[in-house]
Amino acid sequence: MTNLAEDLLLISLDDDGRPRNPSSALGYAVAGGIIAELLLSGRIVLGPDKKAQVAGIGQGTGDKVLDGALERIRAEEKPRDVKWWVRKIAGGDWSNEAARNDVIDDLTDDGVLTRQTGKALGMFTVTTHPPADPAAPERPRAAVREVLIGGAAPDERTAALVGLVNAAGLVDACVEKPDRKAARARAKEIARGEHVSDAVKALQEEIMAAVMVAITASSVAASSGGN
Q1: Looking at per-residue confidence, does 151 or 193 come out higher?
Q2: Is residue 226 part of a domain?
Q3: 54 domain residue, yes or no
Q4: Tell me, what's the pLDDT at 176?
């Protein structure tokens, strides 16, 4: 079973096995998916100050990427909020590809994705990761599509996934062109936590706010650097 970060990565893949990143937000959204998975599974909790902390003994998940993030949270010398962790896990710099690449590697090691290399323009080596099973990306896309245009009520995991898809600008990857306007509107509603319990809404608000803050900060930094 794939986790939220893996589902988001699979949704992002184009037909050649390259991750779509239309708003340069995928890395942060993947990091948000890692944090969301740890929160929803009870491995970490938010304290009264909304700082992330390992819950109880913080048993591992058996997933290399998730457990790596869990250990980083455990080892951090002082509690940090979700915004800090999203940026840190994403990579902490303008490229924000560390978590994204870790998830790609994990899916490849697990046999969900393959690894192919080729040449672009006959000069540059390009690595792509087509799914071993072409239907693999369709499963999370179908779950999102059922909520966005099929009338299904989202459970807490699907609501979190829809919020991450919305933040990453990937709604269009889940639905056909005639449905995209309605799907985007519905995705924004769900991203605001309008269709989940109050407890899940509080977690979702923290995750989505953290991802959007990271995206905005990265965009500002890139613009400043360009000037």
Answers
A1: 151
A2: no
A3: yes
A4: 97
51 forms bridges with which residues in the sheet?
Answer: 81
Q: Which residue has the higher pLDDT, 117 or 93?
A: 117
Residue 197: both structure tokens together: 């319990």
Question: In the predicted model, what is the mean pLDDT of residues 143-161?
Answer: 94
Are 130 and 116 in contact by the 8 Å Cβ rule? The answer is yes
SS3 88: helix
Residue 29 contacts residue 161 (beta carbons within 8 Å): no
Q: What is the DSSP letter of 151?
A: -
- Which of 64, 84, 86, 70 lies closest to 164 in space, CA to CA? 86
Q: CB of 81 within 8 A of CB of 52?
A: yes
SS (H, E, C) 36-66: HHHHHCCCEEECCCCEEEECCCCCCCCCHHH
Residue 227 falls inside a structural domain: no
Q: Which residue has the tokens 């923290």?
A: 206
In one letter, which amino acid is 105?
D
Task: Assign residue 146 the CATH number of its domain.
Answer: 1.10.3630.10
Q: Minimal CA–CA distance to 87: which of 75, 99, 79? A: 99
- Extract the tokens encoding 163: 């919020």
**Which of the residue ranges 63-72, 111-120, 127-136 would you say has the lowest mean pLDDT?**
111-120
Pairing of strands 44-46, 51-54: antiparallel
Range of the domain at 197: 4-219
Tokens of 216: 């905005």
pLDDT one-digit tens code per residue, 103-131? 999 999 999 999 999 887 777 888 999 99
Question: Residue 220 CB: number of other CB atoms within 10 A?
Answer: 10
pTM of the model: 0.92
